[in-house]
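Reagents: none. Just compute today. Small CPxCG-related zinc finger protein.
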Amino acid sequence: MTDGTEVCELTADDADAVRGLTPAPEADGPRADCVLCGEPTEYPAAEAGTTLCPVCTWQQAQRIACSG
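Predicted 3D structure written out:
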């Protein structure tokens, strides 16, 4: 950028930005385990994809954030 500031774009989709931070309804059945630590997540076990608990989601976001 020309003004000397840098901006990180972590995700283009706002819904993906809060994924892992918003709990799913309990009516969805058993919870999936976090693929990193094994703790239960807010996501149903039947949901496809890699599931992370809120702590691991936050840690992953810190790892990929701009370091300046």
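The chain has a mean pLDDT of 74.
Action item: order primers for follow-up constructs.
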